[in-house]
Amino acid sequence: EQSLDAFIGIQAMSYNDRYFNRIHKGFGQVQDTLESYFE
Q1: For residue 25, is pLDDT > 70?
Q2: Looking at the record's lineage, which domain of life comes first (predicted)?
Q3: pLDDT tier at 21 (50, 70, 90 boundaries)?
Q4: pLDDT score for 24
Q5: How would you class 33 by CB atoms within 10 Å of its CB: exposed for 0-12, middle for 13-18, buried for 19 or more?
Q6: Is residue 10 a contact partner of residue 16, using CB atoms and an 8 Å limit?
Q7: Integer Rg of the chain from CA
Q8: Is the pLDDT of residue 11 over 80?
């Protein structure tokens, strides 16, 4: 079970590294609005 957790963690980290600068569909249009909520 621990190795499965490690595998999933590694997969999630590699996904985040690959798509860090990518904007998912729909979020590009409202990115400014969303960012203004957190200022």
Answers
A1: no
A2: Bacteria
A3: low
A4: 65
A5: exposed
A6: no
A7: 15
A8: yes
Average pLDDT of the chain to the nearest whole number: 78
- To 10 degrees, the CA torsion angle through 29, 35, 36, 39? -170
Per-residue HEC secondary structure of the chain comes to CHHHHHHHHHHHHHHHHHCCCCCCCCHHHHHHHHHHHCC
What is the Cα–Cα distance from 13 to 11, expressed in whole angstroms? 5
Count Cβ atoms below 10 Å from residue 9 Cβ, excluding itself: 10
